[in-house]
Design a protein that fits this description.
This protein has helices spanning 51-58, 79-82, 100-110, 115-128, 144-156, 174-189, 201-207, 234-247; strands at 3-18, 21-36, 40-45, 66-71, 74-75, 85-88, 162-166, 193-198, 210-215, 218-224. By secondary structure, it is α/β, with parallel strands linked by helices.
Length: 255
């Protein structure tokens, strides 16, 4: 099966200077991972484990200190490859003074959708995310759920082969969470590849083919669906034990 994402021994070291002293911290260390076409892969980890760093390296927003990050066989950053990717950040910024329709037209233009095809592309994605009726309202007037839908639309308007999402369900209500799950299932049915980070185990286990567990910037485990399917709470137990062992976290004891 074709490899869509490939990380080879990727390390990112952050260096911060203060009063003449340089302090180093590790974002990710010696990260190697391959994700196949049509796969839904979830990256699990506590806050600060390196999830967002990994995604930003893949998108070319950060350069690795060492190692190689590749998408569709090209070393990132590569502008031509970025056209194949949709990105939904954990806190998307969309100009509040624009309407949903105007924002999507703008992103369709950035994605270099030909002008004669732009109207059809925007209308289609508005319909797919259920935002046609609210398309001409200003984004500043949207509810949180509506904002999430239009954010998903901007990531999909150019019909990408790969969708990358950073904590896509954090802070969402149950209805919006269900809609994100439906989106992932829809993309998978179309043969697209989905790669997302999360710390919500219950949602990850419902949609993923495989998951990776990050702890202290290191990929400490990769699991397949069969490793947790059929046993309620199995993935949570595996994740908890793996992270505690890797980060040296003790067990709570109540008397």
């Amino acid at each position: 099966m074709t490899s869509v994402i490939q990380l080879d021994n990727v390390t990112k070291i952050y260096r911060r200077s203060h009063l003449g002293r340089v302090k180093e911290s590790i974002g990710v260390a010696n990260l190697s991972l391959e994700i196949r076409a049509g796969e839904v892969f979830g990256l699990l980890g506590l806050n600060g484990s390196g999830k967002t760093t990994t995604l930003k390296i893949l998108l070319g927003l950060l350069h690795p200190t060492q190692g190689i990050a590749m998408l569709f066989g090209s070393v990132m950053p590569e502008p031509q490859v970025l056209r194949k990717i949709g990105y939904l950040p954990d806190a998307a910024y969309l100009p509040k003074y624009l309407t949903g329709d105007e924002a999507l037209w703008y992103y369709a233009t950035l994605s270099r959708i030909p002008r004669e095809k732009r109207r059809a592309a925007v209308d289609l994605i508005l319909d797919n995310v259920g935002m046609t009726a609210a398309a001409h309202k200003r984004i500043g007037e949207y509810s949180k759920g509506m904002f999430q839908r239009i954010s998903m639309a901007q990531a999909l308007v150019h019909n990408p082969d790969l969708l990358i999402m950073d904590e896509p369900i954090t802070g969402l209500d149950p209805l919006a969470v269900r809609e994100v799950r439906q989106l992932i299932s829809w993309l998978k049915a179309q043969g697209r590849t989905v790669f997302f980070s999360s710390h919500d185990i219950s949602e990850v286990e419902k949609v993923c083919d495989r998951i990776g567990i990050l702890a202290n910037g290191r990929l400490v485990s990769v699991l397949e669906q069969k490793d947790w399917t059929g046993q309620e709470g199995k993935l949570e137990a595996i994740f908890t034990a793996t992270v505690k062992r890797s980060e040296g976290i003790g067990t709570l004891k109540f008397s």
